[in-house]
Amino acid sequence: MTSTETAGTPRPTGTTPVADELRAAVAGTVLTPADETYDAVRAVKLGGIDTRPAVVVRPQTEDDVAAALAVARRHGLPVAVRSGGHSSVGYGSVDDGVVIDVRDLADVEVDAQTRTAWVGAGATAGQVSVAAAEHGLAIGFGDTGSVGVAGITLGGGVGYLSRAQGLTIDNLLAADVVLADGRTVRADATSHPDLFWALRGGGGNFGVVTRLQYRLHPVPEVTGGMLFLPATAEVVAGLVTAMQAAPEELGVIANVMPCPPMPFVPAEHHGSLVVMALVCFAGTADDAAAALAPIRALATPLADLLKPMTYPEMFPPEDPSYRPVAVSRTMFLDHVDTELAARALDGLAQADGMRALQLRALGGAIARVPADATAYAHRSAPLMANVAAFVNTDDRARKLAWIEGMLALLDQGVPGAYVNFLGDEGPERVRAAYPGGTWDRLRAVKAEYDPDNVFARNQNVPPA
């Protein structure tokens, strides 16, 4: 019995005109609310999202994708495209519509000689990392192994290796895309270059990506793990300075947050604000020690769990049943000094429950790409900040107001937003993700490839 059933209540029938038409048209699986696996398949990563699509299609081929689009359009149904299901606002699903769930398109083909890989859109970052590591290679996809490669790539892709290798999109060589009219095209630097430009940061606005080709990099070993430091203004500001000055091979995600009750952190710090730094250095252990020395010198660590490992070990196993309910907002920063850090710590101390300020250093290889080379245009932004809080139904508005207050006290007038971290914030914030001429250029590409805005279940760019 699923969570949505009650004793004595039969499941609805799975025979509908749309479902029957899809089952006749596709080789993949077609699920309706009548199917036992429907509730498990429709669930997305975050909790608090309970969309109920009319049909979920699990395509096996590009032809399946085209057929699903044709049926949805013929019946006037909204379409959502889902890979890993990590959209913070549930854009991988849609009420009473058709979900094209690409998780069965998950093949990973690594060519060690050319250091490239063709990857199905439904593969996860963890799966690709394991396959590439067998050849001593890697590509950065963020910091979570269960994220779908298509979703994170199309928005940009910021992760542990970004300062050394660039964003995920900077290592994207080609993409196979099923368009709204059912055609399949390959977008790369010479074929459909306008679409290729838009796919690199423009989100899922232009079609259903089914395969992606990536450039891989040698990463035979890393030093990684968690480093816990006391949360003082001096430590927070010093850490950010050290992150920016460090060799580009060092990636750090600094989370200022209440300390969870972890056994390796002294109990007296549990519940108090700490800095939990997620660290990855792509290189030898000796080089890692040298790069980390300035960070370890900031204060005596509360816990130092950094050790040599393979890159896939940076993505520990996740509990698939863990579906936190959270709200978050993102912004770019110019700098973090002790004054700003003190304000941030004071703001964090005023809240309750699990909440965090996350800080990432950008720059490096990210900044060496011209701003107009991809749809992600924030190449000169030095720092990215995210403020997040876990919420319950009765405190969501209060927690969101606290987050907005935190953004106000951190605001340095740096414009823009990273589209992959946007929530349900309205069209003005989507517009802010694409500054200058980027917005108009994206709208022109949208008008060419999706003039009817079939792909609207996203941070939407309307056609010109």
- CATH hierarchy, class of the largest domain: Alpha Beta
Give the name of the CATH architecture of the largest domain. 3-Layer(aba) Sandwich
Estimated radius of gyration: 22 Å
Q: Which shape, going by the Cα principal axes?
A: globular
Strand content: 15-25%
Tally of structural domains? 3
Low-confidence stretches: 1-9
Report the end-to-end length measured between terminal Cα atoms: 47 Å
The total of helices stands at 13
How many beta-strand elements? Answer: 19
The major pleated sheet works out as:
8 strands, antiparallel
Please give a structural write-up:
Its cofactor is FAD. The protein is built from 13 helices and 19 strands. By secondary structure, the chain is an alpha+beta fold. Strands 12, 13, 14, 15, 16, 17, 18 and 19 form an 8-stranded antiparallel sheet that branches. Strands 5-6-10-8-9 form a 5-stranded antiparallel sheet. Strands 1-2-4-3 form a 4-stranded mixed sheet. A hairpin with a 4-residue loop joins strand 5 and strand 6.
Brief characterization of the structure:
This protein has 13 helices and 19 strands.
Give me the secondary-structure topology:
Layout: H1 17-25, E1 29-31, H2 38-42, E2 55-58, H3 62-74, E3 79-82, E4 98-101, E5 108-111, E6 116-120, H4 125-133, E7 137-138, H5 149-155, H6 162-165, E8 172-178, E9 184-188, H7 193-199, E10 208-215, E11 217-218, E12 222-230, H8 233-245, E13 250-258, E14 273-282, H9 285-296, E15 303-304, E16 307-309, E17 326-333, H10 338-349, E18 355-361, E19 383-390, H11 396-410, H12 427-432, H13 438-449
Parallel strand pairs: 2-4, 3-4
Antiparallel strand pairs: 1-2, 5-6, 6-10, 7-11, 8-9, 8-10, 12-14, 12-15, 12-16, 13-14, 13-18, 17-19, 18-19
Helix pairs in contact: 1-3, 8-10, 10-11
